[in-house]
Amino acid sequence: MLKGKTALVTGSTSGIGLGIAQALAQQGAHLILNGFGDAASALAQIQALGVKAVHHPADMSKPSEIEAMMAFAQQHGGVDILVNNAGIQHVALVEDFPVDKWDAIIAINLSSAFHTTRLAMPTMRQRNWGRVLNIASTHGLVASPQKSAYVTAKHGLVGFTKSVALETATTGITVNAICPGWVLTPLVQKQIDDRARNEGISVEKAKTDLLAEKQPSLQFTTPEELGGLAVFLCSPQANNVRGAAWNVDGGWVAQ
Ligand code: NAD
To answer: Which domains, and CATH codes, for the chain?
Structure first.
């Protein structure tokens, strides 16, 4: 379905980004990967699906590096599908929140999507086709304590999604957000490990408690499920899905 298209997925060396990259590659899209994890392993997993894949190591907190990555992407076919996925987390009360962590979360989880989108848009407009998928979170729709920077960035990303979806509403470019609940990736494993240590409980108990607190299904969302939704949003059937913030959260925000 996506043969001949090129997808750029930020933060795709692990977790959700890698899952989405795999799902797009299974549909024939060529991939531009990014992220600080094991790039060789991620590239091998994508190339095994029979598509071309390259990696760019840009730091999503640095606009000049994002510009270099987008110029690199232009040399590799231009970006038809842009998945803004790179993200980090830090948990602290607002009065204790380290200023450098706040700045990094806003830069990586929010501003990077502005930079990639503004630089991808001219080619998408020229081709009159494009897909922008912003990986927000349930925290783009509702809040939790001690996550002020993350909740701010993700609510901002949902707002950004809606605004750019309106700017492109009469074109072949669609812009949507995906809002996962808990997904068991390195980002969440760290929160589970911290919880187990702080509360003196086992990692298994911390995992169950984490789910029970927010996610009524008591099941983690998987990168494969998110990949399936990404493929749908890239399909012609989703031509009129615009500015959506689609939760995949086991019922979290239905409560
Ligand atoms: P992860 O830690 O497995 O992956 C994050 C990716 O981003 C990695 O490839 C990492 O190298 C990359 N990255 C981090 N900082 C970067 C930077 N400065 N520049 C470039 N790349 C950078 O985490 P994940 O859980 O797969 O998270 C992916 C996205 O999904 C994030 O935006 C996160 O907020 C969002 N999300 C995650 C969950 C969850 O439960 N795991 C839930 C909702 C939303």
So the answer is: 6-181+222-245 (3.40.50.720), 182-220 (no CATH)
